[in-house]
Amino acid sequence: MLNKVVQLLLLFFLSTSWSQNGFDIVNKKTKVSIPFKFINNLIIIPVEVNGTKLNFLLDTGVSETLLFSLDETEQVKFENIEKVFFTGFGNKEPFEGLKSSNNKLVVKEYVDSNHTIYIVLDQEINISSQVGFPINGIIGSHFFKNHPIEIVYKKNKIIVYDSLSSVLKKQRSKYTKLPISIEEGKPYIYAKVALESKSEELDAKLLIDTGNSDAIWLFKEKNTSIVIPENNYLDFLGKGFSGNIYGKRARLELFRLGDFKFKKPLISFPDSTASGGIQMVKDRIGSIGSEVMKRFNAIYDYSNNTIYLKKNSNFILPFNFNMSGLDVQHEGLQWVKENYEENAASAQVSFESEGNTITRSLKYRFELKPSYSILSIQKGSPADLAGLKEGDIIVKLNSNYVYNYTLQEIKDILRSEEGRTITIEVERKGVIIKTKFQLKSII
């Protein structure tokens, strides 16, 4: 159950073309370094839209730029608006949105002054609650198409190059060059997949999808050679634009990307009902997500149909997953009363009858803290057997108030190690329920 938060492949298909001019480097710079936050295996970058500062998910798996989840303090002016319809992974019908052209997007010195944005009106589309960080939109192919882009995961930065000649001249031997194809604005690569021990390796055309927090997805209905390993379990995989996504999770025997080999990586097999209405490019049978891509420094060179990969220290990390059976989402903010001690120099001082001083430095303050709830429960899982239910508000985790954790920290606890005991307190209809369970690996 690996970070099923935002599998958001968001492969919505509109009658649009990949025709925008796209981003360019300004101020005669040869490269631009852009910081990002890496939360739940997702890249979040600061983007200024028509003068308003927002947060965007950087997603190679989408062709167009999407905007949603604006709060009352965020006002963006749009012009040239027309009505459109969206579809995506899930089981809902297409839904209505808006298309706006001639927008200015600024990411430091990387600028597009004529950018088309698709505005999602459905208030239920909200990545922020699943990531625990405010995200206002998603940006994809237009960010990548004009310049080589390097994603340096270990330093949380993106480098936009005017040209690759300088960087490759110095470090060419450190990178492995692999061919990709750019179709409908998105990058595709061929990999080798061995589903089980002694099974033949399957040639797999996969979308490189940084907006998918999992390792690998395969669509069983796209190739008769795809057989789900016997050791698997049914799970809620995440939310797409058109609703919930369910499927099975397992481990691959082997996954090869060029000469890079991964043993026993996690794999998900989305239910065919989630993707049945989506038109995919020819021969595509799945996706590579950020759980794989974060193990490299990756340079995307769309213009030359090439990706350059170099291992980083993430490469040797195990492919862990959530062993609790519960998935957590950010529920919003709550006011929390906390005790604190003032600086002694500014504290009030009084005296006892014997002349001893009493420093009254203990004060109270109210702070806004995150609130978390249970988004889903896997049937038969440790959390399910412990009596937890969807919608429960989490109060404490391992004896600590849960508002002291980030969503990422909670997920790290739930995927830490098999056999670890998790104590949890939840509120259900005003009643506090205390229970515990042990993390258990089922694949």
How are the SSEs placed, and which strands pair?
Elements: E1 24-25, E2 31-35, E3 37-39, E4 42-49, E5 52-58, E6 65-67, E7 81-86, E8 95-107, E9 110-120, H1 128-131, E10 137-139, H2 141-144, E11 149-152, E12 157-161, H3 165-171, E13 176-179, E14 181-183, E15 186-194, E16 202-208, E17 216-218, E18 233-240, E19 243-251, E20 254-257, E21 260-263, E22 266-270, H4 272-275, E23 284-288, H5 290-293, E24 296-301, E25 306-311, E26 326-341, E27 348-351, E28 357-360, E29 362-377, H6 382-385, E30 393-397, E31 400-401, H7 407-414, E32 421-428, E33 431-438
Parallel strand pairs: 5-10, 6-9, 16-23, 17-22
Antiparallel strand pairs: 1-9, 2-12, 3-4, 4-5, 4-8, 6-10, 7-8, 8-9, 11-12, 11-24, 13-25, 14-15, 15-16, 15-20, 17-23, 18-19, 19-22, 20-21, 24-25, 26-29, 27-28, 29-30, 30-31, 30-32, 32-33
